[in-house]
Design brief:
The complex is a heterodimer of chains A (509) and B (121). Chain A has one domain. Chain A is mainly alpha-helical. A two-stranded antiparallel ribbon of chain A has the order 1-2. In chain A, helix 4 packs antiparallel against helix 19. Chain A has 21 helices and four strands. Chain B has 121 residues and is mainly α. Chain B has one domain: Helix Hairpins. Chain B is 69% helix and 3% strand. Chain B contains four helices and two strands. Chain B has a two-stranded parallel sheet with strand order 1-2. Chain B is elongated and about 65 Å long. The chains are: A mainly alpha (509), B mainly alpha (121). At the A-B interface, helix 6 and helix 7 of A face helix 2 and helix 3 of B. Chain B: It holds the Pfam family Oxidored_q2. Chain B: Its main location: membrane. Chain B: It is found in: Cell membrane. Chain B: It is a multi-pass membrane protein.
Chain lengths: 509, 121
């Protein structure tokens, strides 16, 4: 049990490496079985980690036994473990779907996917800002290769933009880290939180610059307003399982904002308390507005879904801007819901697109689908969940967010924008549904290629989209969990001091 | 020393940003490379610039900070891999899209047409 918290990083790493070696490397069927087994084990590990943290408390995994703040640590607390479990579950669904046809579109699909999962899990678990950068790069380089996987003009073009943007983002990230290390003398996140309050003089301004540079990077990852332009095109041109796993990548950015700008530059940061808030407020609200406009203007279901990701990123950024316990708890619940539903919707959009012939997933008249009933049921589940109507998880998530807005001025801004964005997505999705399912050409073409849905694809969609009703059903225990995670994050004696067991030496250098 | 160092890092960053904003993939890749060089130097300086300060115990009176060196090493490796990937991707984009513009199409303005003609001459 001692090594449980490093397993979400080690398992995909080892699986990915093994998949490149002889008994598995040439045989797609063996690769499939090995990857699905390993991914299932990872899902189990993810849930085991959540329960482990619930019963035993926060675990800190000290690599190489170099005491913090000097060594590298992994911190498994409620929030990070929940996100790891969600990532693994999403990856499992996406992999099930990939067994349909996408894993044969090019080589090395499964190893790349494993490295992607490893990077995301690592970014959630790490307690060290530089390691956050390293895991970001791991997940990015895997995502570059996965994005272009299968080839095609559109993918190449989207990848060029995505890669260049993220390379520039990595440089900014390193500049920010360099500044923070220069002023704070440490990169351990808990230690940074302690050192920040001791700063004074000109160093404060430098630290502020560093912190805001990090905000730019995390904002880019999470599709914050002026940095979101890459997202719709990238996500809509990726193949379905890849787009599904990408749904959690924007959440990595938001998670980092909650971690760095919520904890390190939170209440206790002295002069630098809440430095990100004044930027996050307008940008988050405008991200919602732009996301809603994007949803309304999108001509195809994949683009609608991609813009819904922007919209949910904006909603989550509002929670980060609120920076209180209830909002963080709401953010975590909404994050789980929106990740799984968005992932499921990407899969569904792809399946719908494949059954409509040349029209694909565009909102035009096309031939009738082969399995309209199954697709329509799951489309309506996804739509209801993502809009935030009862009875599914989106409703509970949005209620929690609206409740966490406390002062009247904040309510005046957040409530209308969040509610109108729900209305916007309601309009867009009902228009999408009517066109996709009810407007088809009646002349029955030869029905020779009417085939049942591939088992893996069926399983992937059912797994991811049934998560929404389940999340709503178990909302009670789940909100207890998210409340606890938020309370932990906002209690510096637990989330900061307890992680630095060794007495602090003076200065970092 | 600090002045010259800062000037060099700044100049390299400026050149990197300028090149990254160009329209063709080659200059963008070169720009990103310059940016990553600037970042590496910058990270190195985050442990303060010192002379005669070894990063090993017992070798000198004053000690240098060993951590930035480890960070720079990591950043160099990652930057190198990313640049290699960007170069290959740029070549793939040239093959797939038929031109080397970042946007995948040649911008249709009079000025760019003239520039293009000038480049071919």
């Amino acid at each position: 049990m001692q090594h449980l918290s490093i397993l979400p990083i080690l398992l995909p790493l080892i699986t990915g490496a093994l998949l490149l070696l002889p008994p598995l490397s040439k045989n797609i069927k063996r690769q499939r079985i090995a990857t699905l087994l390993s991914m299932f084990a990872q899902v189990v590990v993810g849930f085991a980690l959540v329960t482990h943290v619930q019963t035993e408390g926060v675990t800190q995994y000290i690599l190489g036994d170099w005491r913090p703040p000097f060594g590298i640590v992994l911190v498994a607390d409620s929030m990070s473990t929940v996100m790891v479990a969600v990532t693994n579950f999403l990856a499992f669904g996406a992999l099930c779907y990939a067994t349909g046809s996408y894993d044969r579109a090019g080589g090395y699909f499964y190893p790349l996917f494993m490295f992607q999962v490893m990077g995301i899990n690592g970014a959630f678990l790490t307690g060290d800002a530089f390691n956050l950068f390293v895991f970001f790069e791991i997940l990015l380089i895997a995502s570059y290769a996965l994005l272009v996987h299968g080839g095609g003009k559109q993918k190449t073009q989207a990848t060029v933009h995505y890669v260049i943007l993220n390379l520039a983002g990595s440089s900014v990230f390193l500049f920010g880290l360099g500044i923070l290390y220069g002023t704070l003398g440490t990169l351990n996140i808990a230690d940074m939180a302690q050192k920040v309050s001791e700063l004074d003089g000109s160093v404060v301004i430098l630290t502020k610059i560093g912190a805001l540079m990090l905000l730019v990077v995390f904002g880019m990852k999470s599709a914050m307003l002026p940095l979101h332009f890459w997202l719709p095109k990238t996500y809509s041109s990726a193949s379905a399982p890849v787009a599904a796993i990408f749904a959690v990548m924007t959440k990595v950015g938001i998670y980092s904002i909650l971690r760095i700008h919520g904890v390190v530059f939170g209440d206790e940061a002295g002069e630098l308390a809440h430095i990100a808030q004044s930027w996050l407020w307008p940008l988050a609200l405008m991200t919602i507005v732009v996301g809603t406009i994007g949803v309304l203007a999108s001509p195809s279901l994949k683009l609608v879904t991609a813009n819904l990701v922007v919209l949910s990123a904006g909603t989550l950024l509002v929670c980060a801007a609120l920076q209180n316990e209830a909002a963080t708890s709401a953010a975590l619940y909404y994050m789980i819901h929106s990740t799984l539903v968005a992932g499921g919707m990407f899969l569904l959009a792809d399946l719908i697109g494949r059954q409509r012939g040349k029209a694909e997933d565009r909102f035009v008249m096309a031939k009738a689908m082969d399995n309209p009933v199954f697709l329509a049921i799951f489309f309506s589940i996804a739509a209801v969940a993502v809009i935030g109507m009862p009875p599914f998880s989106g409703f509970i998530g949005k209620i929690m967010i609206l409740q966490s807005v406390q002062s009247a001025t904040e309510q005046m801004w957040v409530w209308p924008i969040v509610l109108l964005s729900s209305l916007g997505s309601l309009i867009a999705l009902s228009r999408a549904g009517t066109t996709l399912f009810w407007r088809y050409s009646t002349n029955k073409q030869s029905n020779e290629d009417s085939q049942p849905i591939h088992l893996g694809e069926w399983l992937g969609i059912v797994l991811l989209l049934s998560a929404s009703p389940i999340l709503a059903l178990f909302a009670g225990p789940l909100t207890e969990l998210t409340n606890e995670a938020a309370a932990y994050l906002f209690n510096p004696s637990l989330s900061v001091d307890a992680l630095l067991t060794a007495p602090l030496s003076k200065g970092g250098f | 020393m600090e002045g010259i160092y800062a000037f060099c890092v700044g100049l390299m960053t400026a050149c990197g940003i300028f090149l990254t904003l160009r329209g063709r993939t080659f200059s963008v890749v070169v720009g990103l490379t310059l940016l990553s060089y600037a970042v590496n130097l910058f990270l190195f300086a985050s442990g303060r610039l010192k002379l005669d300060a070894a990063a090993v115990l017992g070798m000198s009176e004053e000690y240098g900070d060993p951590l930035p060196q480890a960070l720079v090493l990591t950043a160099i490796v990652i930057g190198f891999a990313m640049t290699a990937f960007a170069v290959i991707l740029a070549m793939r984009a040239r093959a797939d899209l038929g031109n080397d513009h970042v946007d995948g199409r040649i911008p249709q303005t009079k000025e760019s047409a003239r520039q293009k003609a000038g480049g071919q001459r």
